[in-house]
Amino acid sequence: xxxxxxxxxxxxxxxxxxxxxxxxxxxxxxxxxxxxxxxxxxxxxxxxxxxxxxxxxxxxxxxxxxxxxxxxxxxxxxxxxxxxxxxxxxxxxxxxxxxxxxxxxxxxxxxxxxxxxxxxxxxxxxxxxxxxxxxxxxxxxxxxxxxxxxxxxxxxxxxxxxxxxxxxxxxxxxxxxxxxxxxxxxxxxxxxxxxxxxxxxxxxxxxxxxxxxxxxxxxxxxxxxxxxxxxxxxxxxxxxxxxxxxxxxxxxxxxxxxxxxxxxxxxxxxxxxxxxxxxxxxxxxxxxxxxxxxxxxxxxxxxxxxxxxxxxxxxxxxxxxxxxxxxxxxxxxxxxx
Length: 337
What we know:
About 50% of the residues lie in helices and about 5% in strands. By secondary structure, the chain is α/β, with parallel strands linked by helices. The chain has one domain. Helix 11 packs across helix 12 and helix 11 (about 205-220) packs across helix 15 (about 320-330). The longest helix is centred in the last third of the chain and has 20 residues, at about 240-260.
């Protein structure tokens, strides 16, 4: 196996029987391609300026981050890290150039997803293996962000992102979630021509959906799924599922709140799943105006969004599991947020 990623190796073994299994031979093949393309990647990576504003989406797992990225990508003149590029996580500039040649500026015009997974080649992808690779997070459960930050090559990471912008000739919407949150102050300073969007959602809906994801991915309600609040994770490992999920939501929200206190407030947009669903055009107007005001950059709207989205609260589990989850949310005083 070429890919040295303990976190991914553990995922492969856990997801053998679930709804979204990894195929080891496919990963080995893609990793081999990435390794063989590294010389071309180096030749494509040049000095680059931050000419295009990027957008970074933050939020707890299952809070609407994928719908938000689809809305911005489908309606504004901006690129995304798509499902095609995601296959080139070690050589992202190569991936961007291939995507530009093969897919062009095509929009998906789809707002469908399943647990954050979109279906077509040109729809948004979290680009998780790319972030794990450059942020040295290949063993996430033992990851120490402060220690990693001292050895991460931030100039190199910035150069990669700016070269992706250069090749695509526009800004990019990224959804790194906790990978950016672990190093938020650095992301905030390394990419000054960026805005950050934080999306929240009712904790009940998040909890029910996290529980359903555990069952669908692993066929086991006791197996962790989704973002990890690293600092507080150890105290949750021996808890029953309903306390784990409530604690996961509570500590991730706390992590984001602490991070966002350090942000440049004018570059930060707060929204919620309900707001996105009820008034998508109003949200797009806010994004366009923020980018124009801060950077004198015209982020054109090229498609009209739906008048509204039907709120998707169908990720339900059986009543007994829901009742236990509500009990957990009460412990963390999360029922009103």
